[in-house]
Amino acid sequence: MGWRDRWHVLGSGSVSSMATAKTMRDAVASAHRIVVKIGSSSLTSSEGGVDPASVQRLADAVAARRAAGAEVVLVSSGAIAAGLPALGLTRRPRDLGSQQAAASVGMGKLMALYSHAFEVHGITVGQVLLTAEDVTRRGHYRNAQSTLNRLLDLHVVPIVNENDTVATNEIRFGDNDRLAALAAHLVRADVLVLLSDIDGLYDGPPSREGSRLIHEVRSAADLEQVEVGGTGSAVGLGGMTTKIEAARIATGEGIPVVLCRADAVQAALAGEIVGTYFHPQSRRRSTRLLWLAHASAPQGRVVVDAGAVAALVDSGKSLLPAGITGVEGEFSAGDPVDIVGPSGTVIARGLVSYDSAELPALLGRSTRELGRELGSEYAREVVHRDDLVLLGQ
Q: What is the CATH number of the domain that holds 319?
């Protein structure tokens, strides 16, 4: 199930606009912990490089919200963009080596701008550089979470970015929108604010006559009438598709999302009605299950029959050997694996309790039979319900 199947769309003429306005205002105004993400295109000037005025405007808005009692984590792109002028480049390079070189030069410049902008308000900032491995490996994930929480305890504004100097194409987030959604999970944020270079989500290309700004996205319907495309600016990677996906990840775990223009950040953080509001879709899960659903890297696949699908999805049961028809890949006990139905659709992800080499001999057999024949240690679930999350539900 994709992002188009997640939400119900209401345009500017919705009769529920007043209720939505109050919901959005209350969600932001009452938020104790907020994650704000800004992209490269919203930080750069027409002459190239990062615009100090844009950085200062963002810092002023974050400082004002902090003064009102909130904690803020900032997820910021811009390291590569900040390094381009010094390297004589006008556009984001395509090759990985040049991107890493630009990030290496630009990271210090970007943080210097942020440090100066926040110093005006007597606020200390701290840089947190992450790679995909830092959230896909459970131990790294907990370390990143601990660091961010400790910075917030010390009244520091963490500035999070992907570590472009070492990330490779195979292990990168791909854009900072997804990183922002995962950061919102890491710190258990109350709201995620995604800043863009357009006003919010439109039902078509914003430049096309007749396209309408969508003020809210609700649950229980789809976005089939919404046309989304593009891959971002000359200095960035993200487009509207990645922002919608980030909103799906965040709202799927109970975190509301505001998507608005970057120059409206002060209004957004003050709880004013701007941009598009994405309603939360469900209650929050434990941090461990959040990691399993959104940040873990599956090490293999376990194929199950229709009866097992029904037991997992409809009855909330654990996965037993009797319902498994096949094993794909190599993995060890404790690794995350995808659970696949007969049609090939991934229905769940869980922490497996057997090595891949052990499982083929157990398939289709009951735990009682296995316990009698092989010993009590084999009379257990392949994936316990407490270590399993349904996907696409």
A: 2.30.130.10
